[in-house]
């Protein structure tokens, strides 16, 4: 299962989602590889450490060269293809998207848009778009949908993930309702990632939320997200849908 975490808007929770969704899938017993496509390399800085074996970077991975993902310390079942400053400079190959053993590949995209990202989106089984439910977030989503339709991306594969959510904020409750009305509950994921200081603190310690604060709301929200995606995949398989 190939999942791209994408939103052209910066600071919406893409990297936080890539790290902690991957870690949650691994906790659920699914072999998972997370790929850091962002030349800023925030994800690699957060969980990459420096002592793990492995070869190749996201630049090799994207061009289809064989890479050996690093094992992520403290997260059995989770591996990382580390970032590189030129990750999106080359041509996009295809082979790298197949995870060995039918596991999950989660790709953390940089903000912004490029042709390479469009290609990666169209090669993905799912594109998860995290956004903060405010009016700028809503506006950005319209832009994203236009871009996706330009590259022929099929809307069935898009999932909106409401992130940095605070139930106390009227605007969050309101925009969440609007998103569901407009895009439907198949596109808007039923799980919401609540705003949580623990999620912001964990990368500074080089840890996922499951190591740093396993009892926090952040851990419970990302665990719930992983279970939702796993059950949607099983459902799609049992209905014989292609590409999953
Ligand atoms: N649910 C959350 N609760 C609290 N803070 C969060 C949450 N999700 C993300 N953050 C914080 O918000 C900031 C931006 O998050 P993150 O780096 O995941 O966004 P991004 O979309 O990857 O940004 P960029 O576009 O720069 O790559 C970080 O400081 C992160 O710790
Ligand atoms: Mg990021």
Task: Kindly describe this structure.
This protein has one domain: Rossmann fold (3-Layer(aba) Sandwich). It has 244 residues and is α/β, with parallel strands linked by helices. Strands 3-4-2-5-1-6-7-8 form an eight-stranded mixed sheet, sandwiched between helices. Strand 6, helix 5 and strand 7 (158-165) form a beta-alpha-beta unit. The radius of gyration is 17 Å and the shape is globular. The chain is built from nine helices and eight strands. The structure holds adenosine-5'-triphosphate and magnesium ion. Adenosine-5'-triphosphate binds next to helix 1, strand 7 and helix 7.
Descriptive tags:
single chain; about 240 residues; alpha/beta; Rossmann fold; eight-stranded mixed β-sheet; 9 helices; 8 strands; binds adenosine-5'-triphosphate; binds magnesium ion
